[in-house]
Specification:
Elements (H helix, E strand, L loop, with lengths): L1 H13 L2 E5 L9 E3 L12 E4 L12 E4 L4 E13 L6 E9 L5 E3 L2 E5 L15 E8 L5 E8 L2 E4 L12 E8 L4 E6 L2 E7 H4 L7 E3 L14 E3 L14 E3 L10 H4 L6 E3 L11 E3 L12 E3 L16 E10 L4 E9 L2 H10 L1 H8 L11 H18 L4 H10 L2
Antiparallel strand pairs: 1-22, 2-5, 3-4, 4-22, 5-21, 6-12, 6-22, 7-9, 8-9, 8-21, 9-10, 10-11, 12-13, 13-14, 15-20, 16-19, 17-18
Bound molecules: 2-acetamido-2-deoxy-beta-D-glucopyranose (3 copies).
Length: about 400
Amino acid sequence: MIPVIIISLSIQLFSHVYLQEEFDYTWRDRWVDSTTHEDEGKRGTFVWAAPEKKFDKEASKGIKTSEDSKFYHISRDIGSTFSSVGKTLIISYTVSHTQKLDCGGSYIKIFEEGFDQAKFSGDDQYAIMFGPDDCRSTNDKVHVILHKGGENRAMKTKIKTKNDKNTHLYTLIFHKNHSVEVRIDEHTELLKDMHEEWSYFPASRIRDSTAKQPSDWDDRPLIVDETDVKPADWDVPEYIETNTEKPADWDEEKDGKWIVPLKRNPLFKGEWKPKMIPNPSYSGGKWEQPWIDNPEIVDDTEKDFGFEKLRYVGIDVWQVQSGTIFDNIFIGDDLVEYEAFVNATWRKQHKVEFPNESTPKKKDDSKSAKKEEKKVEKKEKEGIPDDDEGWEWYTDRW
Ligand SMILES: *[C@@H]1O[C@H](CO)[C@@H](O)[C@H](O)[C@H]1NC(C)=O
Ligand SMILES: *[C@@H]1O[C@H](CO)[C@@H](O)[C@H](O)[C@H]1NC(C)=O
Ligand SMILES: *[C@@H]1O[C@H](CO)[C@@H](O)[C@H](O)[C@H]1NC(C)=O
């Protein structure tokens, strides 16, 4: 008994689970509908529903968009304000498209204190926006947008959504070391330093610009073998005369002066070069200024990476085809707690949808990231508009 108590106490003291929302039958008590768009009849309603395949009649249920071409605005107060500054922050939830979704968002937004749930609309400034956004397949993208320094800052890397009828787990993790990680169905799609993804953030490691190349630095891996000497028989002509006799009917007046034809000398070996040998004083490569911790990052600017007053989670989307189920929202700072929640929720659902999948497939992250980079580069070259432009194009039409 005693060890169990100690363990559970330590979890409570050192880890935080801010929100675990499984959308049981009491969900309406916690979620507030916004009145925005109500008058114009453009506001859609959420219903309590499960995907086609379910691990449990009730536990598989989440909230589902139920009317086509509508706005959806709904939010929940987490109940207390929390800060993610200097901490890990994990945000995850599941999405199941029961419809065939051509165009529609299924992302969530996290808001700081001072947010008016009853008037929630697309104009409300979020702190973090995260999740899939599908439109005409060319614009499918997982958003990670942070409101920092007075601007909404989108992540650089483009991550494809999973646009099928299964239940997919989307996870965003801000690690303490300022790395950002995005997982889909527990596969890491992205793991990068935040300053690489958002140029806004100061680099956590920089080159030491004061460092100078040491005078004895030697970047030549090979050097000339000074003891090597040219063999005495090396120098021979490249071409030598053949044994051809002057033809008997050769007419010097008509054919010009007879010249014996030449051939390549098989003994010719070209220019002699001394042997190269490993350089005993090789320093290991080109000299580079060493990496150091960026001195500009002091405790105070830790704030750049986190949010101080997080409090609400909301869904604010437009859907052309309704039928998306949002479920299993987790917000916390502890990866073990997160895993336990995922095991109790999405993993059970996933087993019903993929009964034959034994162990999770390991993906080569670096490879897929490189592929994505190439694709984005190609698009930029071809002048394909950025997703956000595409999105505006599409929202303007309705
Ligand atoms: C940051 O922390 C995460 C989680 O521990 C780890 O996976 C990642 O490799 C770390 N990044 C760097 C650059 O050390
Ligand atoms: C979650 O499930 C996985 C796979 O079944 C297991 O390895 C892991 O220990 C579980 N994690 C927790 C925290 O329960
Ligand atoms: C799973 O495996 C069984 C037996 O091998 C097969 O009959 C079934 O079609 C498979 N199901 C799926 C969803 O692949």
